[in-house]
Amino acid sequence: MHHAQEPTTQDWARFRPGALAGVTQMKAHFTEHTFERHSHETYSIGVTASGVQTFHCGGSLHASLRGDVILFNPDEPHDGQRGTQEGFGYSMLYVAPQVVDECRDKEAGLDMAAYFRQPVVRDAAMGRALAQAIGAAGQAQESLRAEELTRDVLVRLLQRYGERRSAGEDSKAAGAVRMARIRDYLRSHYDQDITVDALAREAGLSRVHLTRAFARQFGVPPHIYLNAVRLERAQSAMLAGQGLAEVAAACGFADQSHFSRRFKGSVGLAPGAWLRQMRAGFVMSSS
Questions:
Q1: Model pTM?
Q2: pLDDT in tens, 107-135
Q3: What DSSP letter does each residue of the chain carry, written as one string?
């Protein structure tokens, strides 16, 4: 298997800051790499550039072909692998929820839905618009254009493929308030070796009930949610200048090897390579 730090004919990935604060973008091609089941705290919005990308999401197997748009909501579990021998290439925006909230400006007449109703859509025009927005980021003296293209494509995708989640749907899981408390517990204690027993005691539920109720409420079991929180905290710590071993210990990983496995399984690139690319992107953006 090829490492993704440097481009090869098989597996490579490039990350950089996006056009907007709170947005990271990635361009990649994978033939050998397989993403483990994971989720992100962000929206993950992408377009397939070549080949066939397959993934499980929402209990079904999906395929994204060239020009198709991928739409993952925050905390929505998915995996990823090639659908054909040639592998697949794609570009992705990882968009913080607050960026989407800013796009949903009622005063500007943009009170659209905040969730995507399906994980992949066949819309060539939107695929081209998304690819154009991603390509504009980082171009010299073109910050305004890149920001406008990014906001515009986010708004159009939410308007066209968004859905509203009713209060009834959000409260289907028994003890929604207790599940929110467990979510906050995971976010506050991510650096610890959390057990199902500890969560069950916190919620006042049996171990089995706790795991099932959390998954119904947030779409992922507690361990996948915890991994997403740890990785998000790790990325922030790395960008703030902390060393990889220090980050691994501070964010709840057993050691740097454990951190690297979980990071690459979810992000597609080793932590050190991701950090070098992001730092280079910040330098380019500020030059």
A1: 0.79
A2: 656 677 889 999 999 999 999 999 999 99
A3: ---SSS--SS-EEEEEE-SSTTEEEEEEEESS--EEEE--SSEEEEEEEEE-EEEEETTEEEEE-TT-EEEE-TT--EEEEESSTT-EEEEEEEE-HHHHHHH--GGGT----SEES-SEE--HHHHHHHHHHHHHTT-TT-HHHHHHHHHHHHHHHHHHHEEPPPHHHHT-STTHHHHHHHHHHHHHSTTS---HHHHHHHHTS-HHHHHHHHHHHHSS-HHHHHHHHHHHHHHHHHHTT--HHHHHHHTT-SSHHHHHHHHHHHHSS-HHHHHHHHHHHHHHHH-
